[in-house]
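Curious: why this fold?
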Amino acid sequence: MDIPAKKFGFFTASAMVVGIVIGSGVFKSAGDVINASGGNLTVALLAWFIGGLIIMISTYAFSIVALKNTKASGIIDYVEDYFGAKMAYMVGWFVQFVYYPVLVGILSWLAGDVTQILFGLDNAIWPLTILYFIGIYALNLISPRIAGKTQVSTMVIKLIPLVMIAGAGLVVGLFNGNTLTALSERATNVTAGTGAGLAAAVAVTAFAYDGWILALSITQELKDAKKILPKALFFGSAFIVAVYMLFFLGLSGVVSNNEAIVNAGSLDTSVIAAERLFGVFFGNVVSVMILISVLGTLNGLTMGAVRGMYQIAVRGHGPATRHFTDLAKNDAPVKGGLLSVAVSVFWLGVWYGNFQGWWGGFIDTSVLSIVFLYIAYILVYVDIVKNFDELPSWKRYGVPILATIAALYLIYGAFTSAPLMFVYFAGIVFVILGIGLLLYGPTQSALDTGKKN
């Protein structure tokens, strides 16, 4: 087996953390966090800080595992190494049938939302959603190479609107007094209900902070992984937290707490801020950058989604492994990708039902799909405590225990924000996992039979 060259240093590793995590989540979550905080900007800022602290603790805990097994490249590998193939299969099944398809659908909707605003369209968000949904899957199935190049090109663009709105908004807000007003006056149109509070707001930030685990995939390619990886994860995460909090304060300089809540769950708050700060033309330029950021995140998630079933099947477990390990001439796992399309349509339907009042409440699948993945993270933390006896006590016990508490706090916050919707979502997930468990079975994988993979 070929071993990748040791070619990446501290800066590249840190930049990868920033590039993967920063995306559309922070633009969408602005109003959501204020709403979940009960309209209190100070509580919302604290939520952003605590949410960032959670990913800093989580990334450090995972760096411990990554340095022990540099051949592994993600949560499924880590779980398989210490909890066996079946548990890893179940985690992979969750990622393929819940995590990826949920987020692909929602990101398609967000792209439709910002496009509708940019062009001043009415009632176009769902047709645009479908257009983006079909287009991004088609790109990844027909031309995966172009999809990969697209992902790299959008990384830098993601930072530009964040920095511009943060800087200009802070200056304007301090001069006009809006920032101080936002910090001192609670919003009056909160819709979060009895679940509003710090824990619920922290859970909402999980959507904006998601993706950090993917940065561990380059561990074996770092020049001095033991020194570089923990530092890169820490400083990269700290940079993200600082940018997010400054961006959030920048928004408060031109968008009131009440306005942010009215536009909760969409990108409208960020677009409004851009127009007020830079005028219609330059505001639209910033909005285009936000759209590019959304599409970059959507493309990255879709790249994972179309390969998810292949990653399950190639390990030799689950249904029709030979079927799902077949690759097209362009090396795209088309059959697994088409299954991903079908599953994403289902979850997009759940998201659509939120706006039609089908569920009697809002099932925030964007947050819940991420929060539920932290259950799998806890398995990794348990493994550190049980098996990493060569570590000093603070690493073997302190770090994983703190990371476990952080994960449980996120889960608690998601539950308290909307208990009934949490239960509905959990019910759907358990059914999906139950189906996966019924279909689990050791079969010969493509690797075992020498098929192309």
